[in-house]
What does this fold into?
Amino acid sequence: MSALDGLEVRRTTTAQQLADGLSERIMAGAFGPGDRLRESAIAAELGVARNTIREAVRILELTGLVRYEVNRGAVVIAPTAEKIEALYTARERLETAALVRTPRPEQLAAITEAFDALCDAATNDPSAIVDRDLAFHQAIVALLDSTRLDEFFASLTQELRFYLTVLAKDETADEVIAEHRAILDAVRLGDRDRAVAEIHAHVEVSVERLKAVLKN
Amino acid sequence: MSALDGLEVRRTTTAQQLADGLSERIMAGAFGPGDRLRESAIAAELGVARNTIREAVRILELTGLVRYEVNRGAVVIAPTAEKIEALYTARERLETAALVRTPRPEQLAAITEAFDALCDAATNDPSAIVDRDLAFHQAIVALLDSTRLDEFFASLTQELRFYLTVLAKDETADEVIAEHRAILDAVRLGDRDRAVAEIHAHVEVSVERLKAVLKN
DNA sequence: TACAGTTGAACTGTACTACAGTTGGTCGGC
DNA sequence: GCCGACCAACTGTAGTACAGTTCAACTGTA
It folds into this structure.
């Protein structure tokens, strides 16, 4: 702790801030899936130059929330059955790989804590359920002890979180809790096969639920 | 096969082409690790506007070859012991996860083929050894049946390939072949534990070799 | 000689303008 | 109702300008 803690001159660029802001707005639903991000409009509204917006959007592209189409500019990603399946498949492989490892005590504690937070949200703050849900799985992936995989999983998570919010999945909290408790229990008991099976089931159910919502 | 096959008007932007070109040049050693990509210089040399170069470099950032530093612009990534370890750890986790799965016949064939290509390169085209080496591992990761993980692994591979070329690792081809044959044999025999152990050893050795080179 | 402070050139970040080419819709003709 | 021409909006790219930052060379001082 230095005497200069907290004193930090802005160590970021306008484009970066714009990217963060746009990301928030998109996640909040200001732009729907498939929407185009019109440069001039955004630039005018936010009072910055168009090329700055372009940079911001390129930065956004890093996080996977938008992609570029030639002569159409930036487009917000849109969920499809294939994309959702691919997403969950990757998740399932990573979590499966994580669950066959023996957790260190603090890792087990982190997972347990994540689960408790999820339970808490279920009763006290339903809007946070999705976040806590994803955080629980992030804690599982952390068992792999790989920062690169943690980051990758986080990017999958970000994408998924977007899909979940736009699809307004309204799963009953009870189900969610039950599924996650089953995973947690298996992990705590050291029953790897069951943990893996539970994750598999959890993914399967989730994908089906989402695909059902997709079809409206 | 349509009569119009191959007829495709340029479905790409200048910035994209520049990104590809720059990527090639960097991989070829035109820019070393830690080098800054000076926008005006590149723009002048290639006869394009500076903002176009900026866009190209932002696209490059997607592939992980460069990263941006505030007020210093784009900088070519540089290997450090930590980064190399993180890279190989992620690789090891992914390949381990892949090797506990039961390969389908065509997957096994693909891995075998990759190995044969590696052997061929060892005698006929030493410059291709690194590529074939990485392709072999990509074939292993393909066992996971996840396009998202395939893509992620490919990005790790790209990064690693760069480090390998700049570090000019001159491993003897014999060693490489031997290590990979050990992995292949274990896979073919369905001996998962041994396959995983071989991958682990392979990664361990590789990291140590690279770290040794890093220290000059 | 070593070191701190100053200075200036080079470069990035951002804004603004301009224009050719593309896209997507609208409108009139059939 | 379908087709093609036309038009408005927008992207991709070029070019210019300038404030703020970085970095290395230079200068003065102990």
User: Anything to note?
Assistant: The two ends of chain A are 53 Å apart (CA to CA). Residues 13-15, 48-52, 55, 70-72 of chain A lie near DNA strand C (CB under 10 Å from a C1').
